[in-house]
Amino acid sequence: MFPILFLAFVVAIKVYKKTTPNGKVTVYLGKRDFIDHLDHVDPIDGIIVVENDYLQGRKVFGQVTTTYRFGREEDEVMGVKFSKELVLCREQIVPMKKEKQDMTPIQERLLKRLGPNSYPFLFQFPQNSPSSVTLQPGDDDQGKPLGVEYTIKVFVGENEEDKGHKRSSVALTIKKLQYAPPTRGRRLPSSLVSKGFTFSQGKLNLEVTLDKEIYYHGEKVAANVIVTNNSRKAVKNIKLFVVQHCEVTMVNSQFSRHVASLETREGCPITPGASFTKQFYLVPLASSNKDRRGIALDGHLKDDDVNLASSTMVQEGKCPAEAMGIVISYSIRVKLNCGTLGGELITDVPFKLMHPAPGSVEKEKATMKKSKSIDRARYENSCYANDDDDNIVFEDFARLRLNEPE
Predict the structure, then answer these.
(1) Among the four residues 108, 252, 322, 396, which has the most C-beta atoms within 10 Å?
(2) Which ranges carry the Arrestin C-terminal-like domain (predicted)?
(3) Does pTM surpass 0.85?
(4) Distance from CA of residue 107 to its chain's centroid?
(5) Are 355 and 178 in contact (CB under 8 A)?
(6) DSSP 85-116
(7) Taking the chain, what is the end-to-end CA distance rounded to the nearest angstrom?
(8) Would you say the C-alpha torsion 293, 296, 300, 302 has a positive or negative sign?
C-alpha cells in the first residue's frame, strides 16, 4: 500500500522593505497600493527597524507628502512653480509617543518577526485626498511627469523641523487608488442622436448601448450600434473610440485622448432607407498607448503592470467637479461619416473603467460586506491571521531612494 502524502500550500505574504543608504534604519510596508473606499481609506501601516545604539538620543520621524505637478518642470522660469508639495501628516515614530498604539495584524506579525528594535507607525490619508495619477510624458519632456504622487519619508533628526541627512533618510513612493463598487449595477448606458440634412428630408438616427456601466481594466468594452437611415445621405464608414477625459483641477484645464479605436466599412455604405446593427468590441489598455504623451496612468510609470488611470469616484451626494487632483472619466465615441457634404454624426456614451474590488467576482458579490475603517475582519480572515511567520517574503522597495550618500 502506498503512503498518502498531504501537502500544505502556504500563501506567501509579500512585505516591501527599504533601507537608508547608511544601512541603519529599515522601513517595512505590507503593501504599496492603498485603497480609497469612498467612506474610508486604507491606513498606511508599517514597521521601522533601527540598529542598536544608533540614535544616541536622536529621534526617528515619518511623514507622508503628496506632490501635485500640473505643469512641465522645464517650463518653470523666474521662480514660477508648476507643482505643489504638501505634508499631509507627520509624526515621531521612535521613541513612540503613545504607550499603546493601534496596530493592524500584519504589523503585529512583523513586530514578532523583527524583534525588539522594531517600531510600528500608522498614517491616515486626509479626507478628499486625490488618487495617484501620472500623465505619460512625451519624448521631449525632460523633468518629472505631471500628476499626483504620494511619498512616505522616514528620517533621523533632533526634532520635527530637522530635515534629516540623506544618508539616514529613506523615501518610499506609494499609490492611492480606487476600486469599483462591489456590484456593477444594472443600468446600461446608452445614447440616441439624430441628424437632419439641409435641403433633404428625413433624419439619420444613431443609437449606441453599452453592455455594462463599469468595466474592469483589461476587459472588452462592448458597444451595440444601431443605425437607421431615414435620410437621403449614405453612411460611408463607422469609427469607434474609447476616449479618456482628464480634468486638471489646479489650472482648470481639460483635455481628451483616444486610448482605443476602430474603423470599419462593414455594412457600408448604409444607403437611404437601410439600417445596420452590430456589436463592436474595444479594449482600452495602457500597453497599447506606451509612447503617447498625456495618457493618464494609475500611479508610477516604472511599474510593469501599470494600468490606465481609473475613473474618479466621489461620495454619494458630492459633485465630481469638487474632486481634487486629476479627475478622470471615460466614454465610447461613435462617428458616422456621411461624406464631404454630409458631415458626421457623433455621440458619446460615458462609462467607468476601474479595478475590481477584492472578492467582487460575480460569485462572491452577494457576500460582500462593508469594511470598517481599519479593515480588521478582512485581515483576520486572510493569510495574515496565520501564526506561521515563515510565509512572509521580503522584497526590496527599489524605487525613489533619496539621492545616494554624499
Answers:
(1) 108
(2) 200-358
(3) no
(4) 25
(5) yes
(6) EEEEEEEEEETTSSSS----HHHHHHHHHH-T
(7) 68
(8) negative
pLDDT digits 0-9 by tens, 340-375 = 888 899 999 999 999 888 766 544 344 444 434 444
What whole-number distance in Å separates Cα of residue 370 and Cα of residue 126?
20
Q: Assess contact for 215 and 259: CB atoms under 8 A.
A: no
∠ Cα 298 27 111 (to 5°): 120
Cβ-based neighbour number of residue 159 at 10 Å: 9
Question: Where is 301: in which H helix or E strand?
Answer: none
Q: What is the pLDDT of residues 238-276, one digit of tens each?
A: 999 999 999 988 777 899 999 999 999 999 999 999 999
Instruction: Locate 374 and state its grid cell.
Output: 481599519
Grid look-up 521662480 returns 79
Task: Tell me how far apart the alpha carbons of residues 284 and 298 are, in angstroms, rounded to a whole number.
Answer: 14
What letter represents residue 404's amino acid?
E
Distance between CA 234 and CA 338 in Å, rounded? Answer: 6
Q: Per the structure block, which three cell numbers stand in for 339?
A: 461624406
343: left (phi over 0), alpha (psi -120 to 50) or beta: left
